[in-house]
Amino acid sequence: MPRRIIPLADVSAIPDFSGAATSPSGLLTDTLARPLRDLRISVTDRCNFRCVYCMPREVFDKDYQFLPHAALLSFEEIERLARVFVAHGVEKIRLTGGEPLLRKNIEFLIERLALLRTPEGRPLDLTLTTNGSLLARKAKSLKDAGLSRVTVSLDALDDALFRRMNDADFAVADVLNGIETAQAAGLAPIKVNMVVKRGTNDQEIVPMARHFKGSGAVLRFIEYMDVGASNGWNMSEVLPSVQVVERIDAHFPLEPLEAHTAAETAQRWGYRDGSGEIGVISSVTRAFCDSCTRARLSTEGKLYLCLFAVSGHDLRGLIRSGAGDDEVATAIARIWEARGDRYSQLRGSASAPSRDDARRVEMSYIGG
Ligand code: SAM
Ligand code: SF4
Ligand code: SF4
Question: Which of 25, 95, 136, 183 could pair covalently with 128 via S-S, beta carbons 3.0-4.6 A apart?
């Protein structure tokens, strides 16, 4: 098939699909033998929060240029790309952002994605990560559209501290209400993600554990990461997950649990009294790149192979140039087969991409 004429400015970014076509087999692996199993799709780069570690207000201020609507992948485009990814082996899709519930009619997208089936005929594990601010209003329509579960981010129970951390004056009570409404709507089991920043919210670890213990929600503690180039990350603000476990264990004894799957990013710990479990995600102190099966599709349709990548592959350019599904499948296969990203394993070493590199993508654009 001849290459199509595409705008000059986009030429370098359009992924290659020349040579023999690669039909999806579900068995794609990268240079480190990692399969492609998870896809995170960022549906908007906008957010109604300004979390200090993600979209600091000094950077994401009123003059910040968010993407215009035409730059965003449409729902049709997302569904089309997702279908190809699923044919290549993706079993789990997570919608994220920015704040995904700000994307108008997100339920329509969920309805379409819920109809996709793996090559073996199984439905996808279809989830969404949200800051919870609009969850109480949307939980039922999300469930009705076919969403399997939700993950809600909550960094503190102390209302004043939470308002400072989201820097948009949102109250803890609204997020807790969202979590309860989502549980009642059947979007369970709900995961609650707390990013721990030493010296900012680490005193909330035990109160958060106490609150969610026995609630059915699984609380997960995430080490604060050096993602993007705007949050002024410093290693001294990372509280290693081992210490999170120690602090909780001192109040509520814990025991290690088996991982559900080999690619699970969280280490699981169960309360010895049988009242549920917590998870710790040690992105900084215990890299899990060896089992990273995750690709990320940015708001404007660029495919990123790692959270810490400095460039993406322009799938939007590819499909808007008129490429057929076979060509898209071939391009994705080429990209994944060439993947060797393992930033967290290399962090701090000479071969790691520089932390000061201003091109490093922001979490709100690529999706957490
Ligand atoms: N707005 C939604 C939310 O907050 O859940 C979805 C997008 S947000 C970028 C996804 C996740 O990334 C959230 O759980 C957030 O706490 C986490 N996150 C953002 N910046 C982070 C950082 N520097 N280190 C660790 N986690 C981070
Ligand atoms: Fe928004 Fe989520 Fe980033 Fe907070 S973590 S600023 S809620 S995208
Ligand atoms: Fe995956 Fe990159 Fe994170 Fe490693 S650093 S686990 S390769 S996203």
Answer: 95
Classified as helix, coil or strand, 235 is helix
The strand pair at 294-297 and 302-304 is best described as: antiparallel
Domains contained in the chain, CATH given:
38-366 (3.20.20.70)
> Is 53 marked as binding a ligand?
yes
In this predicted model, what pLDDT tens digit does every residue of 120-141 receive, in sequence order? 999 999 999 999 999 999 999 9
pLDDT at 5: 33
Phi/psi for 29 (5° steps) reads: -135, 155
Whole-angstrom Cα distance, residue 177 to residue 6? 49
Type of residue numbered 283: S
Q: What are phi and psi of 113, to 5 degrees?
A: -70, -30
pLDDT value at residue 270: 98
**The predicted structure's pLDDT at residue 7:** 35
pTM of the model: 0.93
Tokens 């995750």 found at: 294
Determine the Cα–Cα distance for residues 227 and 33; give it in Å rounded to an integer. 25
In the structure encoding, which two tokens stand for residue 232, read together? 């002024």
To the question of whether residue 145 is assigned a binding role by annotation, the answer is no
- Mutational test site, ligand 2, from 48, 49, 200, 363, max ligand atoms within 8 Å of CB: 49
Ranges of residues in the chain whose predicted pLDDT is under 50: 1-12
